[in-house]
Sequence to fold (498 residues):
Amino acid sequence: MKGSARYAATATHRERRKGLRFGLTWRFSLALAALLLLVVGTLTLLVLREIEVNQRERVEALLKQRSELANLRVQQTYLANPLVDAQTFLRRSGPQLAADLGSLLSGAHVVLYDANGREVGNSLPLSRTDAVRDTLDYALQGKIAYEVSEDQLIYMAPLMWTIGQVGVVQIHYSLQADRLFYDSVAAGMRNIGIGALAFSFLLGFLYVRRVVRAIRSLHLAAGDIREGRYITESPVKRRDELGELSEGIAYMSREIKSSFERQKQFMGSVSHEFKTPLTSIIAYTDLLDMYRDDPQLLEEARANMRKEADRLLEMVEKVLRLSELEQYEFSQRAEAVPLRPLLEEAARRLQAKATQLGIAIRTESEEVTVMADRESLVHIFLNVLDNAVKYNEPGGRVDVSCSMRGGNAIVRVRDTGIGIPDEARAKLFEPFYTVSKDRARLSGGTGLGLSLVKRLVLLQGGAIELLPSASGARGVTFEITLPIASSASAAHEQRLQR
Ligand code: ADP
Fold:
């Protein structure tokens, strides 16, 4: 049965894993890669565009300067000997001028045209020029024009003199070096981009895989806790939010485990403690079955059965109250309660029992008002006073005092009774703990009183402790600390003001 349940759990787990195949690791890594691709791509495009613009501007400026230089040189040559008109001059001196300009412009290929667009000079006479007709027509209208053919930029500028346009100068510019530079930058960017992409993808993948593994460990831990296999150690050790979450899960698991064990122990004790009086009652009924006519037995049985039944009832009431406190955090109606009347009332209610046992109760209280639930306070004082009477000796005393210390009320209940051995002190407030079974049975104790008292005191924001007894002194002193009303309301006001 257990095996098959386990198998079923593993199977669903496997299915879930299948569902996780395109899990966080891949999603995150791919998203990171896509983002990086976008960034690197955009950056590359921007850089390349910038280089292109820069190159074009530089070439345009250079060629403009060269064409102006050419224009000036041709004009100067003409003006040095202006015997014929400009067009005749260009036709005659064109070849020589083109050659001169070629060497002047560091070996550039230069072509000269007259005002009709006829070629009059060419620094490289064998080259063909018909492809540039359209551009030339444009330049003949007094405008700068250029075109790109293969890795050559063919630039044309009008030869403008004071008399108007006399022709066109055409200068070739090789784009090879610029292209090489552009290509090498593009290749570099591409390589860096691919490298960065691969590297960051790998880094992202490894990192996210670690995170996902941690999440998976937490998931498994949660599954274990769900199936009752509590963990004590934090399943993931990291110094980040996941580590904190893991610590939290481990803490929660420890808490659930200890609360579960406490409850189990409590239930065990409850059943065990209930058994004793019931067994005793059953034993008496058996005896009565056997000796129906024994009047002495009848009386003894009646008295004892009543005592055991009372004990049972008291236990049931206390257990119910304890579990109520445990489950509902108990709705406490805190109000200002003057302690003196309350303590005197508790003493009065125990007076009959005390007189019966030959014990004197004395209360001595300052006027102190605490902020607490009245019902709970009554319960607390009755229980502690009852113990002080119950575990006392004939001729003994119980002193109840109340004073103020700091922002607290201090209630002390001192008795001259049988005392509590040192080894019992640590367990005194645990449910069902009794110093000795005989003592408890004799006094009709249940071992629940002090655990209930402690829980109630804590709910009032107070504390209870058994004071260390002075050597040689008889009895014990319990000290209960409770927050006083004025300071409680002052603190409240302070909080409101803030
Ligand atoms: P009970 O109902 O048995 O009195 P409590 O929880 O009130 O249970 O007390 C637990 C045990 O502590 C008691 O069994 C008793 O032995 C011991 N005890 C409590 N108060 C006193 C006291 N004033 N003097 C001596 N022993 C005490």
Q: What stands out?
A: Residues 50 and 186 are 12 Å apart (CA to CA). Residues 13-180 form a domain with the Beta-Lactamase fold (CATH 3.30.450.20). The first helix runs from residue 2 to 19. The pocket of adenosine-5'-diphosphate is lined by residues 387-388, 391, 415, 417-420, 428, 433-435, 439-440, 445-451, 476 (CB under 6 Å).
